[in-house]
Amino acid sequence: MPKLFSEPWYRSNSRVTPESSFRTRREFLRDLGVLGITGLVAAQWGCGHSEKLIAVEEGCNESDLLDITRFDALNATQNQTYALAPARALTSSSDALSHNNFYEFSEDPKSIWCLSRNFQTKPWSVNISGACEKQGDFNLESILTLSPPEERVYRHRCVEAWAMTVPWIGYSLRHFIDWCAPTNDATHVRFVSAFDASTMKNVNFIWPYYEGLRLDEARHDLALLATGMYGRELSPQNGAPLRLVLPWKYGYKSIKSIASVEFLKAEPSTFWRDIDQNEYPFLSNVDPTRPHTFWSQETERLLGTTDRVPTLPYNGYGEWVAYLYSG
Ligand SMILES: Nc1nc2c(c(=O)[nH]1)N[C@H]1C(S)=C(S)[C@@H](COP(=O)(O)O)O[C@H]1N2
Ligand SMILES: [Mo]
């Protein structure tokens, strides 16, 4: 049985813990005027039980919804090229399924698993446009056949200072990029998430979510186009059916539920940068020496534990990616 509601840090009002930081991120957004937090939501945050209330109100059963085996199994070959030492224990699937950021559904990381349960991810197509040869809508199946699926264990570092270690399934984004055949003058690629108003009910932001990469970053072998995790298809809350996983960057760069891809000749804007360009710059590589305005980035908490470990430059992936930023 997953320990969903028992973590004492979640109820803590202390400003020292990373989870108070996560709460502070939302206070920060509210101060910016982004979040019109209502009395009701504020009260829920205050009591720290909002996730439980939502699950009960919505009739969500955690033992059903957080069971990874309810998702279809995927076959994948292990690729251990990017294994980091010392190894970290894998985050349990129930922790990865029950603590999420997916703001379209909610600002509360502990309610996404419930609120996203009816998000339809089949059938799915991706629109490709801009400075590339491929143009138009392509169904998910045609994209999945571009390269055989691999399993890669990556560390994920959220800007809110929680972290997880997850066996993702997917293939290098560059196979998809090459298939799209960007023109010689294309320099960047932009991704936009799906927006489904019937399930994504957080009205505090203007959707859809959008992100971007330089083409050389997108073509780096480490950048994964993921369709699964823990040997299964992705869950809705983790970004089904298709998402990016960019382990050397803060988590918000790893856009979920990709609906369109556009090739560009200039740097695009990104969702969080449009909210605060100093706090969430375009590159957003993990950097323990650069604190957030409201918290240090020197350490991170491993999801499902109370352990804090040092945060590494590029989240530990510097030996592979640092050269991209040497110029
Ligand atoms: N569309 C969309 N993608 C998103 C987000 C989001 O709110 N919307 N949150 C990002 C953030 S902040 C993080 S940390 C990761 C979380 O991924 P996970 O829920 O699978 O752990 O998704 C990223 N991708
Ligand atoms: Mo994040």
Automatic annotation (TrEMBL):
Protein keywords: Oxidoreductase
Keyword Oxidoreductase: yes
SUPFAM superfamilies, alphabetized: Oxidoreductase molybdopterin-binding domain
A GO term, aspect molecular function: oxidoreductase activity
Enzyme Commission number, as recorded: 1.8.5.-
Positions of the Oxidoreductase molybdopterin-binding domain: 120-272
Keyword Protein biosynthesis: no
Record-linked InterPro entries: OxRdtase_Mopterin-bd_dom (IPR000572), OxRdtase_Mopterin-bd_sf (IPR036374)
Name under which the protein is recorded: Protein-methionine-sulfoxide reductase catalytic subunit MsrP
Organism of origin: Eiseniibacteriota bacterium
Gene: msrP
